[in-house]
Amino acid sequence: MKNKYPFKIKRDNKIFLYTKKEFENLLEIEYLPTLKFEKDVILKKINKICIKAGKDGLLTKENIWFGTYYEKEIKSHFIPDVYIKWIDSVKEHGLFANKDFSNRAFLGEYTGVVRKYRKIMDDKNSYLFEYSIGYKKTSYTIDAREKGSLIRFVNHSLTPNVTPLSVYLDGTIHLIFRTNKVIKKDEELTYNYGPFYWKKREKPMADK
User: Could you give the CA distance from residue 152 to residue 146 in angstroms, rounded to a whole number?
Assistant: First the structure.
């Protein structure tokens, strides 16, 4: 990281800057700038699935095009100008804009540990993202509960201002997030978790 203090947390209306180590210690997570595969064999299997999906037409043109379009941001492990703030005991922390963002601005990659989905253990894990390859579903998931990027702090909303995109780059799928509207400074970044997420969870009061 070129910036020694890339992480921002807001408390008492003041923004404090932190190093990676300080940030990890404070929030008790490991920051991952890119996907981490639980086992080498998983990465190899995913590479093969991606190749087959491409041949079978299951990777869309959008998957491929956006992977090329955002290649620089993905490979540079881009960290947007955002800050984390504690909201309440229900939502806990959230991610907020530290500047104005234009529509379709790149915000970052949803990273974590790519591993097999374990139904019984994972039903209550709020930091899982399905690892699909184009139109092809897989048995893998991205687990950002203990290890992940700043995007793991994006909360749910029925009127989201952020949209996830599945993109293909260098043999694997990456899940990136970008704005879907103009976002003003200090506005919370949110996306719609979808009905499957709330199937075994209590919905927020605003969603009922």
Answer: 10
* pLDDT at position 200 over 50: yes
**By the 8 A CB rule, do 190 and 177 touch?**
no
Judging by DSSP bridges, how do beta strands 128-130 and 140-143 pair with one another? antiparallel
Q: Are strands 113-116 and 140-143 parallel, antiparallel or unpaired?
A: antiparallel
Q: Which domain holds residue 62?
A: 31-198
CA separation for the pair 38, 201 (Å, rounded): 27
Q: What mean pLDDT is predicted for residues 168-178?
A: 97
Return the pLDDT at 198: 47
Q: How many domains does the chain have?
A: 1
**CA–CA dist 69, 120 (Å, integer):** 38
Residue from 79, 70, 85, 39 nearest 168 by CA:
70
Sign of the torsion formed by the C-alpha atoms of 118, 120, 121 and 122: positive
Single pTM value for the model: 0.92
CATH of the domain at 92: 2.170.270.10
Is 5 among the domain residues? no
Amino acid at 186: D
pLDDT in tens, 54-63: 999 999 999 9
